[in-house]
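Give me structure tokens for this 313-residue protein.
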Amino acid sequence: MHNIDVRNISLGQIQYFLKVVECNSFTKAANHLHLTQPTLSKRIAGMESMLGIQLFIREKQSIRLTPAGRHLFDKWSAVADLVERTVEEAHVIQQAFFRNLSIGGLDSHRPDVLILPIVESFQRKYRDISMRVDNSTAQDIRKMLVDGELDVIFTVLYDTCLLEEEKFSHELLFECPLEVCMLKTNPLSQKNVLCISELNTYNFIAISPLRTPSYSEMLKVLCEPFGFTPNFSCYTSNANALPLNLISGNDIFICDMFFRDYGNSHLCFRPIADTKSGIVMCWRKDNKKKELTLFIEEALDMRRKSLFPNGMS
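Here you go.
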């Protein structure tokens, strides 16, 4: 067993070797690599000496891989592809990361209500600040905030209980009651305002606790004071799938007026008395970016001046 220090082998040397095999020629590979044929031959010979392995059988008009060389080619090809692909991925990540400000919102919320008005107003004032806006589930954007991938998020009120108070700040930008969404054939649709106790006999469609545990926990906390536990008849993988699973007049799910399908003519929405929901802006306390401070000030100023659309303030 040869005692080889692989740290002496560079990625460049490996790529030289791979190119020679791909071209089946030192001359053609040298042209691709912008080297002279003697230089490339010398570098491959040097690698063979360093490894203590003969890579090629050199004949007058051709070259052939040795069995050991074939083994290294098969293994190193995958490594070289991996390095190239991950470097490209890292460039994509870096381009997004080095945006001055990164913002996240819920993919189940209407972007025109809060996020877009704030972003548009902010960009009109600060044209030199580049921004990136993402959306995903409540759990995903919360994790991205925790991991530092997002500077600020707009999320639903019930999910903020999972953010540690000593590490995160938050502001409730708009408060509203929770609402029951149902088919128009549901008997509850005949009422203007509902009480939690009236939901006792209905089937709850809910986001899977494996995906967004804070949602099902919110429903339990909502119902338990009234002496019942929600009857979860169906779990979905995300909030956007909730309306698709309203099958009968006994099915319901809980949302608020920011839900993307709110106002859909095929559905019925009714507020629940004495409940509280809304959109909350959250950020890390240790994030000292001046751009973040300016963005927070802009959002709070718009709230004070009642500049959100659709009569929201």
